[in-house]
Amino acid sequence: MSEHVIREEPVRVPLIYDPRVRSIFFQVLLVALLAMGIWWIVDNTVENLRRSNISTGFAFLRGRAGFDISDRLIDYTSDSSYGRALLVGIANTLAVAAAGIVTATILGFLVGIGRLSQNWLIRKLAMIYVEVFRNIPPLLVILFWYQGVLAVLPNVRDSLSLPLGSYLNNRGFYFPKLVWEPGSGLILAGFVAAVVLSWYVARRARARQMATGERFPVFLTSVCLIIGLPLLGYLVSGMPVSVDYPQKGTFNLSGGTNIKPEFLSLYLALSFYTASFIAEIVRAGIMGVPKGQTEAYSALGMSSNDGLRLVVIPQAMRIIIPPLTSQYLNLTKNSSLAVAIGYPDLYAVGGTILNQTGQAIEVVVIFMTVYLSISILTSLFMNWFNTKMALKER
Amino acid sequence: MKKLAIGLLSAAAIGVVATAASADTLDDVKKKGFVQCGVNTALAGFSAPNDKGEWTGLDVDYCRAVAAAVFGDGTKVKFTGLSAKDRFTALQSGEVDILSRNTTWTVNRDTALGLNFAGVTYYDGQGFMINAKKLPGVNSALQLSGASVCVQAGTTTELNLADYFSANKMEYNPVVFEKFEEANAAYDAGRCDAYTTDQSGLYAVRLQMSAPDDHVVLPEIISKEPLGPSVRQGDDKWFDIAKWTYFALLNAEEAGITQANVDEMKNSSNPDIRRLLGTESETKIGTDLGLSNDWVVNIIKATGNYGEIFERNVGSGSPLKISRGINALWTKGGLQYGMPIR
C-alpha cells in the first residue's frame, strides 16, 4: 500500500557514545587500575623488606620451632618444624570448631524448639538463654567460662572426685583412658561390622515398609548391634583392654586423659554463643512452615512425632540450612579468639611463629588461606546438604 | 579517553616510585615532632603507667633520653604498649621508631628479623617462680618435672623453657599466653605450678600477686637475657643515635655527671667531661650525630645518668630493690661499659 518503506539503516554512533564500547572500556580500566594497585602494594612491600633485611619466602617452615605446645592432637616436640607446629594449630582449630559446631547445633535445636513449646517455663527459659548469649560479645563469653567458671574450680590437691575415677579441677577434666593392647583389633572390627549391618538393616526395613507397609524396629536393632558386636569381639579376643586411671602426682594428676580448661572454655563458649543464634534460626524455620501442613498430616492420621519428623522438619530445614551455614563459619572464625586464654589454635601458634621468624606477611597469608579453605569447605558441604534437602517436586 | 588512561597509568607509576618507604627515621621523627617508642604494657620497673597515668620505668627512661637527644626535651616521646608477640612487627612496619621493651638480643632477631640492637640496658637471666605455700619442699627448678608452667608467647623465655626441660629430661605442660597480664592472672589463679620469665620480671610479677610473700623465685638462672633497645636495619644514622644515647648515659655515670650537677659540670676543666657535654671548643660530636652539641646535657637533664635511671626504676629507689649486680659499671665489677665519646 504505502510506498514508504522504512529502511532500517543502522545509525552510525561515534565509538565514544556507544554504550557497549563504553562499558567495556570502563571495565578494562577498572581491572587495569586494580592490577596496578596490587602490583604497587607487592612491589612496595618487597622493596621495603629488602631494604630492612627481613628474610622472605616460605623456607622458614622447615626450621626448628623450638617451643612446646601442650594441647596437641598430632605428634609434636620442640624439635619439630614450624610447618609441623602450624599443623598442630590447624588441628586444634578444627577440633574446637568441629566439637563446637556439633554441640551448638544440638543445643540450638533444643532451645529453638523450646521457644515454641506449649510449656510456659520452658518457653521463657529458652527466651532468656537466647537473649543473654546473643547479646554478649563472644570474647566475654570465653572469658566468663575461663575465669568465671573453670578458674574457680578447686586446686589439683583438692580435685573434685567424679564417678568412674575421673576428676575435675582448675587444670581441667581428667578421666580414665582405655589402653588398647594387642588383639583389640577384633573390637574395632566388631564395631565396623555393626555399623555396616545397621545401615543395611535400615535400608531393607525402609524398602519393606514402602512395599508392604510393615514396620521394623530399626533403632533398637542398631543399638543392640553396635553394643553387642564389639562386646563379642572383646570377649573372644580375651579382654585385651585395660584402663589407665588418673593418679595424683607431685604437681598434676598423671595418667588417664585430660581436657584442658583452655579447650573446655573455648568449646563451651563457642557452643553456647552460637547456639543462641541457631535457636532463632530453628524457630524461624519451624514457624515458616505453613500451619496447613500440620493440619494436613493430622488429617492423614499421622502421629505428631511422625508428622514433625516427616512433614514439618524437612520443610523447615530448607529455611534453616542457609543461615545455619553462616553460623558455622562464624563459629570457626570466632575460634581465633582462643588467643585470649592461651589455647594453641592456628592463630596463637602462627603468632608465635611470626614473632620468632619475623615473617609477618607469609604467616598472615597462611592464616588467610587456611581460614578461607576451612570456610569454603564448610560452605561447599552445606550447599550440598542444602541441595539434598531442597524441595523435590514429584 | 585514551589520554586520560595514559595519564592515570603514568600517575600511578610515579606514585609507585614516590611512596617506597623513607629510610631516614631521624628526619621523620623531627618532622612529626616526637619519638614513637614501643614499650611493655605492664612490667613494673621497666615500663608501666604509674598511678598518674604517666609511663615510668627503665625502658621508658631510655626512650625519654633519645627524645632529649633529638629534641632537647625528654617529654617529646609517645609510647605504644606492645605485646611480646606484636613488638617486632610494630618496629618493622614503622609503627614505632624504637623498640625498648625488655627484648633479648639474639642473632636471629639481629639478622632474620631485620633488627639492630643498640646495646644492653639490662643484663638479665631467666628464672622460675613458684608458690611456696602450695608447693612446700620445692626449692630447685630441677624438681619441676611434671609441672604446668605459665609463660608468655613469642619470647626467648618460651624457647629456653623448652630447651631447659628437654636438656634435663623433664616433662612439663606449657600454658602459653599472649599477654603478660593474662599469664600473670592465670598463675595467680593457680592454673600453673610455676611462672617463668626474666628474673627482673619475676620480682615485678611477684609484687602484683594477691599474696606476694607466698611466692619464691627459685635460684636457677637458665639463660642469658641481655635486654636492650632496637631499631630497624637500613638506617645507620638513627642506629647511631640509639647506640650513643645509651653510651652517653653510661659515660655520664662514669664521669659522675648527674641530673643535679650537670650545669655545674659544664664548667669543669676535665677534657673528658668537656667533650662529653659539648663544651669543648669547635666540637663536632653532636652535629656529626645529626644532633645539637649539647645533646648529652639534654639527656642527663631529662633522665639523669644510667645509675640514676637504674636506682629510680628497679634499684633501691623502687619497690623492686634489685641490686646493681652485673649491671654495675665495668669500673665497679659489672658489665656496663660505655664506649668512649671522643
| Major β-sheet annotation of chain A | 4 strands, antiparallel
The Rg value of chain A, from CA coordinates, equals 29 Å
Helix content of chain A: 55-70%
CATH superfamily membership of the largest domain in chain B, which one? Periplasmic binding protein-like II
Q: What is the averaged pLDDT score of chain A?
A: 87
Write structural notes for this entry.
The complex is a heterodimer of chains A (394) and B (342). By secondary structure, chain A is α+β, with helices and mostly antiparallel strands. Helix content of chain A is 63%, strand content 7%. Chain A contains eleven helices and eight strands. In chain A, the strands form three sheets. A four-stranded antiparallel sheet of chain A has the order 1-2-3-8. In chain A, strands 4-5 form a two-stranded antiparallel ribbon. In chain A, helix 5 packs antiparallel against helix 6. Chain A is globular and about 95 Å long. Chain B has two domains: 205 residues, 3-Layer(aba) Sandwich (D-Maltodextrin-Binding Protein, domain 2); 98 residues, D-Maltodextrin-Binding Protein, domain 2. Chain B is globular. Chains A and B meet through helix 1 and helix 10 of A and helix 1, helix 4, helix 5, helix 6 and strand 10 of B.
